[in-house]
Design a protein that fits this description.
By secondary structure, the protein is α+β, with helices and mostly antiparallel strands. The chain has helices at 3-14, 59-71, 128-134, 138-146, and strands at residues 19-29, 32-39, 46-47, 50-52, 73-77, 83-90, 96-111, 123-127. Strands 1, 2, 3, 4, 5, 6, 7 and 8 form an 8-stranded mixed β-sheet that branches.
Length: 149
């Protein structure tokens, strides 16, 4: 059984919201903080790299791994989780699954030219304020607005 189907069954049985782990990939350019945004594969919406917990990694390490796979980020965790936000995960069944997303800061050293999901997504550096306007999730937008510029 696919992992997402198991999550849906768990959610329906227990009412618990599953958790994903996101990487807030940051750099400073001309004295200003910028965040790396990527597009989803299905809809092209702008979002942060994120994914389900990996058994052999911590929450932060999971976020860092997702940043590598989805955006080619080479970097390191730069502190504890910044917070969480609510999101809807689109399942293969077509039904949305409400989940929480825990956001981990990542200091980006460089971006790789080749990485696992290259060609499946776009990536773009944007100022924090613009990133807050690009995302669909209100709680994520608020978290981005709350960070130091």
């Amino acid at each position: 059984m696919k992992y997402e189907k198991k999550l849906e069954l768990l959610r329906n049985a227990s009412g618990v919201r599953p958790v994903q782990f996101a990487a807030l990939c940051l750099r400073r350019k001309a004295g200003r903080a910028e965040v790396l945004m990527i597009t989803s594969r299905e809809t092209g919406r702008w979002l942060l790299p994120k994914g389900w917990r990996m058994d052999d990694r911590s929450e932060g390490e999971t976020a860092l791994t997702e940043a590598w796979e989805e955006a080619g980020v080479i970097g390191r965790l730069s502190g504890p989780a910044l917070g969480t936000y609510g999101a809807q995960k689109a399942l293969e069944t077509g039904r949305p699954l409400p989940c929480r997303v825990e956001v981990h800061p990542v200091k980006v050293d460089k971006l790789a030219a080749r990485y696992p999901e290259k060609g499946q997504r776009r990536r773009k550096w944007v100022p924090l304020a613009k990133a807050a306007r690009l995302v669909a999730e209100p709680e994520l937008a608020e978290l981005l607005r709350s960070l130091k510029h």
